[in-house]
Amino acid sequence: MRIGITCYATFGGSGIIATEIGLELARRGHQVHFICAEVPWRFDHFVENIFFHEVEWRDYPLLEHSSYALALASKMVEVARYQQLDLFHVHYAIPHATSAHLAREILIAGNEAAPKLITTLHGTDITLVGSDHSLLPITRFSIERSQGVTTPSEYLRFATYEKLGLPPAVPIEVIPNFVDTDSYAPLPERDRRRLKRILHNSNFRPLKRADDVLRVFSQVNEKIPCELVFIGDGPERSRVEKMVHELGLAAEVRFLGKQHNVADVLKQGDVFVLPSVTESFGLAALEALSCGVPVVASDVGGLPEVIQNGECGFLTPLGDLAAMSDAIVRMFSDEDLHARMSIAARKTALEHFQRKPMIDRYEAYYRKVLG
Ligand code: GMT
After folding, report:
1. pLDDT tens, 138-172?
2. In whole angstroms, what is the distance from residue 76 CA to residue 68 CA?
3. C-alpha distances in Å from residue 182, one per residue of 8, 22, 131, 320, 349
């Protein structure tokens, strides 16, 4: 197959999943054309069958607000035409599904072959931005006009019908996110000399509640001295950094910023904390589980589909910081419980979220959509 993949080529989960799908499909002999604003960050080496087409848009004052979606549609037309694509697989509905639909219409109007369109929804493209009245009609329309639609969780599938008022006649396939369990693997042995370490990895947007991570850490640290490591960067980081200094915790809290090798950091942790307001899936949590690190997270969105409460971590009511810190203190003060949960965490990743079976499912779904 000749596949065009579009994603936000950032450190976010949707970019990671799109890139991993493309890399694996290329290894399987498909021709994969990434059509993105920038090269996805995992392309640090040469791979057969992978092509990259940069979306170029004009920096012109009158076009300030609209040009990416339109330039993307134009680039999609060009790539589909010259590379004879069978399929556009776009990640994140806005504006990627809209641009791809427009590209198809342009090709059809010119009596040219138009690639089929598969849209993978990831989260806030439905739960926050896409369901806002300013974008709802175009989001719903673009999803309805896709020949295939997938979500990484049952939760997001349900939310899409509910929040967008999508008719049940539009089928949505759930294909869970996955992790490379070879790279994201536990260390053979933990260094028992160091302090216990709490981890968090996010883009520091308000919905991640990074400040709550700090508050939870502070409560745990009062009972059991430990460390906190933040991975990632984003709008809330400087506020959280200020709080660290106000709480006098600068010696115990480290900010690593955006990391290319997240797995190496995760392996050195003992608990991963995710107090988000919502998560369609929580890829960051799955990456921690795969490294044998139990997760304490809010009981929201698709997180219960990834974390079995009481087995590979704990799910606590949204905003209940005392419940989160109690869960961590419980694990930190009971070595056997922590060891059991760590084994269960790794098992969850191996049994339910391996990369190969999920990409088999995407490949089969592509073939079904292509008929
Ligand atoms: O939806 C977003 O705001 C960003 C997006 C991303 O690119 O990381 O996150 C969503 O997609 C991830 C990959 O499928 C999921 O693991 C995240 O849970 C999801 N975020 C939210 O639903 C808030």
Report:
1. 999 999 999 999 999 999 999 999 999 999 999 99
2. 12
3. 25, 18, 37, 34, 11
Strand partners, 257: 232
Q: Whose CA is nearest to atom 23 of ligand 1?
A: 279
The SS3 of residue 346 is helix
Question: pLDDT tens across 227-242, in order?
Answer: 999 999 999 999 999 9
Nearest-atom number in ligand 1 for the CA of 177 is 14
Same CATH fold assignment for domains 2-178+354-370 and 196-352: yes
Give ∠ CA 150-153-154 in degrees, rounded to 5. Answer: 95
Q: How many helices (H) and strands (E) does the chain have?
A: 13, 13
Residues lining ligand 1, Cβ inside 6 A: 12-15, 17, 122-125, 152, 177, 207, 278-283
- Residues near 249 by beta carbon (within 8 Å), at least 6 away in sequence: 214, 217, 218, 221, 228
What size, in residues, is the chain? 371
CATH number of 196-352: 3.40.50.2000
* Residue to probe by mutation, ligand 1, list 36, 281, 307, most atoms within 8 Å of CB: 281
Domain-by-domain residue ranges, the chain? 2-178+354-370, 196-352
CA–centroid distance, residue 48 to ligand 1 (Å): 29
Rounded CA separation 191/205 (Å): 32
Closest to 85 in 3D by CA, of 34, 28, 159: 34
Q: Distance from the CA of 191 to the center of ligand 1, in angstroms?
A: 32
Distance (Å) from CA 15 to ligand 1 centroid = 9
CATH architecture classification, 2-178+354-370? 3-Layer(aba) Sandwich (3.40)
Which residue type, as a one-letter code, is found at position 182?
D
Binned at pLDDT 50, 70 and 90, residue 360 comes out as very high
CA-CA-CA-CA torsion sign (204, 287, 250, 247): positive
